[in-house]
Structures are given as C-alpha cells and as structure tokens.
Amino acid sequence: MRELRMKSKGLLLVVSGPSGAGKGTICKALIEKNPNVVLSVSATTRAPRNGEIEGVSYYFKSEQQFKEMIANDELLEWAAFCSNYYGTPKKYVEKMLQEGKDVILEIDVQGALKVRSKYPEGIYIFILPPSMEELKSRITNRGTESQEVINERLNTARLEFTHINKYNYIIINDRLEDAVKDLEAIIIAEKCRIERSQEIIKEVCNI
Ligand code: 5GP
Questions:
Q1: Is the pTM of this model over 0.90?
Q2: Less Cβ crowding at N or C end of the chain, within 10 Å?
C-alpha cells in the first residue's frame, strides 16, 4: 500500500467480529505488508493460551492490576467479555496516532461503541465468517477452548451481530488474501477522503 498523507494524523481502525472470524490473522497479515500500520496490544485478565506472548499477544494482568489501570485512567476503553476483562492502553494509541501511524484496535463490540463516542472519526470494521457453521468449526479446530467456552463465544457472537449496523464496513473472511485486500482498500479509500485531505489540498492547490 502506498504511504499516503504521511504528514497527517494516523487513522484509528476499530476491528470487531466474533471469536474465530479471523480478525487477528487478517490484521497481522496487513501489518506485515504495511509498516505504517500498528496494532494496539490490549490488557486482559484472561489466562494466556498456548503460544501467546506477554506484551505481544496481550499484557496479561490480574483482576487487581486491571482495576488499578481503570482507576489510574490508563485505558481508552475496557469491557467484560465472556467472564474476563479486556482493555486498550491509552498512551500507546494516542502516541502512534500523533506520529501519523494507523492504529488497529481489535476489540469487542462493547469496547468499539465506547471508542466511537470518543473518536467518531475512527473507522469501524466488522469481520464476518462466511457462515455460522464455518465459525463453529474454526473455533473448535483451534482446540484452545473447552466446549463450554466455545458455546459462550458463539452466543456472544449472535449478540454482537445485533450491533453490526453501527459499523462502517463489513469484511467477509472466506479467503484470507481477499479479506486483507478488502481491509487495505478501506484504508486507502479513507485516506483519500476529502475531509482528511485538507492539508494536501492547501499545499498543492495553494488555496
Ligand atoms: P480473545 O480472548 O479471543 O483473545 O478475545 C476475546 C474478545 O475480546 C475478542 O472479541 C477481542 O477482539 C476482544 N478484545 C481484545 N482486546 C480487547 C480490548 O482491549 N478491549 C475490548 N473491549 N475487547 C477486546
């Protein structure tokens, strides 16, 4: 992707979608190809899964530590999701946006709605699986959750779908490459919006 409008503030991209829809894989693939895009690392009270790395996958916290982060106003938003807390550390996001980086928050619907009230200029994207059957088989094949947790996550997905019209874009993750291309296309189009191009217009058109 071309590095457009480097001088302006970065884009805030909020990506939601059910567990197993492939949000993480899509965002990771996008970031590998685009050095101007960074991913915010969340804090959570959830236990690490096999292979997850502290400070890369999440900042793993105790409930006490998480509550202290809330009390110290360190979080841009936070939410309880399937019996655990998740939150976005504020400092990193604000710093990256100021530096002109595009920042992805990969967060649940409750968190996204909170962010939207603070950042209406953000871009809200919902990732869907091609079908609920496919979603179920992806979560099951991941093999990281018990049947009880899988069911809880599928029920949460159905609840999250009721908020889908509050997002700006939908990406269907049937083929990873296509989903990544869709996300790139959204970023490019958003950077070309007239509202985000005022500085360039002034410079080029001298008006
Ligand atoms: P998981 O346990 O599968 O890593 O994440 C569960 C859900 O929590 C996913 O929908 C994920 O996007 C969401 N999530 C991860 N980090 C955050 C965060 O900082 N804030 C909020 N509100 N949700 C988050």
A1: yes
A2: C
